[in-house]
Amino acid sequence: MNEAAMGKKRRRPRVIPGFGLTMGVTVSMLSILILIPLCSILGKAFALTPAEFFAVITKANVLKAFGTSLLCSFIAAAVNVVFGLILAWVLVCYSFPGKRILDGLIELPFAMPTAVAGITLSRMYSDQGIMGKFLLNFGIQGSYTRVGLTIALVFVGIPFVVRAVQPVLEGLDGQYEEAAEMLGASRVRTFFRVILPELAPSLLAGFGLALARGIGEYGSVIYISGNSEKNGTQVVSYVIMQKLNAGNVDYEGAAAIALVLLVISFALLFIINLIQNRAARRLG
């Protein structure tokens, strides 16, 4: 029997046929929806000379907007890690009336138009709003400040953390927790030494997704932030829209800022994925 016949004999039939067709459809959709739009951004940005490119992205208002977006997104993602873990823990470990409703409400920031969320939050946290009046008692202004901006980013980012942690909690083996308790470990020690390391990769993934979403968010923050360059509440997405809505539309300048925003998001996700993979390998 020749080698070709032996190779053909060893080859197993595919369980699901049609790999060539499905792969072609996948690559085509990926190109149309993602790769071609990204290439158009690159084309517009690279139409500028290096001097013009750096002049656009190093303007004072652009740098300030990048700082605001990064800072508020990081704080919001950190808050979401804490409260997202608590929400996931409650949904997985406890049974109570209305649990399914609460579980469904977690998806609300995904389903609700971001502009509607922005209008609602800006009204609620304004000086006349319910939460705004409450914060004023502590000398904190909600809407039209970085506080309000961070609150809006917490709202849009919380589902990423909950949905990243929830399946890991559901599949967590309770034997490790029981073994720790039998060895005399307290509940706090058991959580930090046994449970939290198992959740660390998923928490990091949720943090990265919430952070990347927050950096480029527009609809939910455009109203509550106030968009004041003086008060430092302009976000990068608003600066891009300014260049596209001005009397003289500056596509190249908007594309240059968008390219930097894209690189930052990719870099953050890449670094977080590396850390997550190393943590997962270390934990087996």
What separation lies between the terminal Cα atoms?
43 Å
Q: Spell the H/E element sequence.
A: HHHHHHHHHHHHH
Low-confidence stretches: none
Helix fraction by DSSP (H/I, runs of at least 4): over 70%
The fraction of residues in strands falls at: under 5%
Radius of gyration: 24 Å
Contiguous helical run count: 13
State the total count of DSSP E strands: 0
* Broad structural category: mainly alpha
Largest sheet: none
List the main descriptive attributes of the protein structure presented here.
mainly alpha, 284 residues, globular
List the helices and strands and how they pair.
Blueprint: H1 3-10, H2 19-45, H3 50-57, H4 60-93, H5 99-105, H6 108-111, H7 114-124, H8 130-136, H9 146-170, H10 174-182, H11 187-215, H12 236-245, H13 251-283
Helix pairs in contact: 2-13, 4-9, 4-11, 7-9, 9-11, 10-11, 11-13, 12-13
Explain what this protein looks like in three dimensions.
α7 crosses α9 and α9 crosses α11. The protein is globular, with a radius of gyration of 24 Å. It has about 280 residues and is mainly alpha-helical. It has 13 helices and no strands. About 75% of the residues lie in helices and about 0% in strands. The longest helix is centred in the N-terminal third of the chain and has 34 residues.
Question: What's this entry about, in short?
Answer:
The chain is 75% helix and 0% strand. The protein is built from 13 helices and no strands. It has helices spanning 3-10, 19-45, 50-57, 60-93, 99-105, 108-111, 114-124, 130-136, 146-170, 174-182, 187-215, 236-245, 251-283.
